[in-house]
Design goal:
- The protein is an alpha+beta fold.
- The chain has two domains: about 80 residues, VC0802-like, CATH 3.30.2130.10; about 60 residues, 2-Layer Sandwich (VC0802-like).
- The chain has a six-stranded antiparallel sheet.
- The chain is globular.
Length: about 160
């Protein structure tokens, strides 16, 4: 990637008014997270961000982001669902936002994600969670850092104007 080349991305997608729920150390067994997804389906809740990862041993962590309004509709049932999943802990982060950077370069230009996250780190933007595919990176940050992140992304990539 040349120094003067600026990669183009599709218009940045920003989802605000979101809560992040981290279900920690869920035993790895078939259907372990089914109670959570059944709850989300019953309440017609759309997941804005999802990340699953190894938590060591025979456990995994599950990170989801949902709209604030949706959270308040199912909050009363979350303790029971967490117990049924046998999660050892749940962490909640309020006032977060999910940003999606979509571009044709993530799969053909090594280092594109590194370029993105290095620029955010140098600007002091704390990334809480990351999910990257061959065509995009989605990440969660504090809602009060959205404008700064948009400026950093605009300096790092060519972002077409929203129509």
């Amino acid at each position: 990637m040349g120094v003067t080349e600026t990669l183009e991305i599709f218009p940045l997608k920003v989802l605000r008014n979101v809560i992040q729920l981290n279900f920690l150390r869920i035993p790895t067994r078939p259907g372990a997270t089914r109670p959570l997804f059944d709850l989300l389906e019953r309440h017609n809740v759309s997941v804005k961000f999802l990340l699953e990862g190894c938590a060591g041993g025979m456990n995994r962590d599950l990170v989801i982001c949902i709209a604030n309004d949706d959270f308040f509709r199912l909050e009363a049932e979350l303790k029971e669902v967490t117990s049924r999943m046998q999660a050892q802990a749940v962490e909640m982060r309020r006032s977060v936002a999910v940003l999606r950077v979509l571009g044709a370069h993530f799969d053909i230009r090594p280092g594109t994600s590194g370029l993105l996250f290095e620029a955010l780190a140098q600007a002091g933007i704390k990334v809480l969670s990351i999910a990257t595919t061959i065509t995009s990176s989605m990440f969660v940050i504090s809602d009060d850092q959205v404008e700064a992140a948009e400026r950093v992304i605009g300096r790092t990539f060519h972002v077409p104007k929203k129509k």
